[in-house]
Amino acid sequence: xxxxxxxxxxxxxxxxxxxxxxxxxxxxxxxxxxxxxxxxxxxxxxxxxxxxxxxxxxxxxxxxxxxxxxxxxxxxxxxxxxxxxxxxxxxxxxxxxxxxxxxxxxxxxxxxxxxxxxxxxxxxxxxxxxxxxxxxxxxxxxxxxxxxxxxxxxxxxxxxxxxxxxxxxxxxxxxxxxxxxxxxxxxxxxxxxxxxxxxxxxxxxxxxxxxxxxxxxxxxxxxxxxxxxxxxxxxxxxx
Amino acid sequence: xxxxxxxxxxxxxxxxxxxxxxxxxxxxxxxxxxxxxxxxxxxxxxxxxxxxxxxxxxxxxxxxxxxxxxxxxxxxxxxxxxxxxxxxxxxxxxxxxxxxxxxxxxxxxxxxxxxxxxxxxxxxxxxxxxxxxxxxxxxxxxxxxxxxxxxxxxxxxxxxxxxxxxxxxxxxxxxxxxxxxxxxxxxxxxxxxxxxxxxxxxxxxxxxxxxxxxxxxxxxxxxxxx
Lengths: 239, 226
Description:
The complex is a heterodimer of chains A (239) and B (226).
Chain A: H1 2-5, H2 8-40, H3 54-81, H4 84-116, H5 124-145, H6 149-163, H7 166-176, H8 196-238
Helix pairs in contact in A: 2-8, 3-4, 3-6, 3-8, 4-5, 4-6, 4-8, 5-6, 5-7
Chain B: H1 2-23, H2 25-45, H3 49-81, H4 84-90, H5 95-124, H6 129-157, H7 166-171, H8 176-183, H9 194-224
Helix pairs in contact in B: 1-5, 2-3, 2-5, 3-5, 3-6, 5-6, 5-9, 6-9, 8-9
């Protein structure tokens, strides 16, 4: 099934079917999520209304890490199996991941001002997230630096694999160092320290972001496939 | 016997790199001059000498990183352009041994001028002997990782015909941990008795950098020769 879909043309046909569905789900979930964020959840007893930034900040932060993991996995897949689709996905993921990371930093900064009293602190979590943004930018630059796209894909895969080092640092920075940023509130291994009235909108927003990410990714992958087709046609005409 | 031969070959390779480096002695001059002038520019830009005393570590490390990155380009570009990089691989030298030999030669190239530059740092920045000693130990422990990463950055840019600044953009983020731990800058990561463990962390960084750079370098070198 997976190897059947690994053909870019077959994948393009699948994208055309899935993409409108995911985009619609994302919009519906976003509307429902925003309703819950603003009207269906209580303000925090300490932070007041500013806690609502969490519904944007936390999903963005999760996705900034998740998208990098996808890029890294695709890069490994690309280097081992030399598959075009893996290259296309990692190439398409990089700008989306950069946007999510930027949104994380901006929303965190806006949240930080009223709660910490400053827009920015050089603590481990924030610094490592900033490094992630720089790595994303590096990936985008390297993707566009080489005239030969396959070479650019290979180099960006290597860079993405090196950058994996940063992921555990971001994840556990709040535990390893004494940071101003709070430790994880939602963990796989223990019950969440957030009230369910806040957890529900957070999860709805997360799923809305997930479907939004999938639809944007599919649009970008389709664009990449079409662009490569055009390049092949141009090359054939020149030859 | 085979193992012994491989060892011999590797040392031949290191010897070759060092011989080439000594032939191009002007690189060492350029490196030293760049280091001194760039440090001086920092000093001149600060009016109060007490600030220089505070920021001497940052100045030394930033200048060192940039000078290493500028020099590293020479190490690979010439070999790539005259085809000796390909030839070495054709002769049977593994990509890893080429990278390690180049890093070793580069490390020697950095350490020779640093022997003469460290007393200058001592005088310029008016630091204590204890601070100087810490700086020297930091230099010894962190420069192997720096050279490995710089060689990797040169490998990334060796096939770029224009916009060579990309190598700085993509590789500089990986210098951040080293800058943090060598300068133990400010209060950023000041917990878990970091100051006592600083040297151990630098050794740890080296042992992470070495396999990562060798693996990535091998992949890039294979890609270069395609």
